[in-house]
Amino acid sequence: MLIWLLHRFGPLLERLEPFAAGESRVFLTTRTALASLTGFLMAVLLGPAAIRWLKSRFRERIASDSERLNEIQAGKSATPTMGGLFILSAVVSSVLLWGDLSSRYVQLGLVVALGMGGVGAIDDWVKLNTRRNGLSVRQKLLGQVVVATLAGWILYYHHAGHPQGHQLIWPIGGAGFALGAGFLLWSIFVLVGSSNAVNLTDGLDGLAGGCMIFAGSAFVALTYLAGHRVMAEYLRIPYFAGAGELAVVLGATVGAVLGFLWFNCYPAQVFMGDTGSLPLGGLIGLAALVTRQEAILVIVGGVFVLETLSVIAQVAWFRWTGNRILACSPLHNHFLFRGQHEMKIVVRFWIGAALLAIVGVASLKIR
Fold this sequence. Notes:
The protein is mostly helical. The chain has one domain. The chain is built from 16 helices and 2 strands. Strand 1 and strand 2 form a beta hairpin.
């Protein structure tokens, strides 16, 4: 909306241009900050009414494969879920207000957020309204792959003219490996993988949301830097004109998650469900693909990666030996089974996520 208004006032736009940052003619830094603030305020203001509405329709059903976990989490039964609906509402409203809707990166952000959110909403609805535990693995994966394929295809053609647009870049030294047409398959892997990684982490009050704030904030910085010609050249990272507009989307996301965390912190008044976790993971995966910083995604999203690896290791080891490495996977459940208080686990994971975000952004200078 702001972009549309400014484009209608040419003389004013020309007078503002000398004061703008990076490649943006309309105050990218300010719009990113305002998008974050708007996302936060909308989530906080929408929260009470949204929770009442969700409480009357969608309540969490504790039905994992672990009886002991079900016993530990029994007190959370009937908590309103699908809180991702008001996270997405806050994000989309904020982006419509402060984002440049003509930007391909903003459009991609909305496609991934709404597409993955739609898959998550269907999964949550099936779980809450039938006897099934959500969509089958194949059905859920198919939905994610469809969204990821669309986003990857658009990004593939948008980056086609950029010398590093389809390269897999190693963070130390900046060496690149050309993916060519394999970029599409790689995009699907990154988007689906990051989406599911956040989903697996969403098991304790405030855990996924808090970790997402740190990872999302890191990628606000990374997308901003990738779209700033001078800073990108200084840090020797790939420069993509207009990539900074994705910082507005991620800024709105971080703000909305902060607002959601107001209600999701222990003891949670609402859960985000797959409706929230799938699009949040998809957005940081998209940011990594746009900036060509997938290697840094592994660092910045290290908590999500570790949670995913703990599940893979648990399943693989059990099938091979019949024994379990962890008391229960994902990793946060292992500590829960060992008697640690939920809030202690969550805060320690937040600390890890904060440190990894700092290390990930700082690694840009190691060239």
